[in-house]
Amino acid sequence: MERGDRAGRNDQEDRISELRVAFFAAKRISPAKLAAQIQEDGFSCLQCGECCSGQDNSVVVFPFEIRAIQAATDLDWLDVVSPPEEGEWDKYGYFHTLEWRVKKENDSCRFYQNGRCSIYPVRPMLCNTYPFYLDNGILQRSECRGLGGKIEPDEALRMAERLIKRYITEIRESIALLERYRDFERGEAGKSGRIVVHDSEGEHRITGNKVMDEIASIASLPAEAKASSHSRSL
Fold first, then answer.
1. pLDDT tens by residue, 214-233
2. Which of 44, 86, 98, 169 is 20 to 30 A away from residue 229, measured at CA?
């Protein structure tokens, strides 16, 4: 094993260890205390749809959530989600990226139709807990006009329980991704027409110029140009 490979593997194992500590800490979070914080903040959905649309709208989904949406809609995998535009190229010209995003149409979630969510019963956990999320076990808030609204104690508790479930799932999915992740030698952008998406199930390989062209367009990466060094931290 090369020294650089060994160092990378050690970093990966250290990160997995940190996530396992966070996992057990997450299971000790008190739903009642979290609900009290949520109720103090206040929240009431205005059904404005702002969280479902806009250029910055991006909903990360896990494989099991994608399959739930597929079961409810009879859509193919790539009709539900797209690979993110952030990533790196390997020495063979394949584009590598992490996890999945709900597919968008005209800067809106493709499932936001006629002012409503068409997959509401199986909507992703990120949507089901918006505008709240947990970061290192601490309650955080995304921008939302509904913050400060009245929320009943029972609904605050349900939100707290969903948040804890989401947080634990995010940690579990991150551990699985890292355990299955295989690093690669970086290179220049190419024309292979293949995308490799790394997620908790391993590597999903997508072949087809249509998908690759879409990624190259969004990322503003000319086909012959060297890819940017942007990568998501593992």
1. 454 444 443 333 333 333 32
2. 169
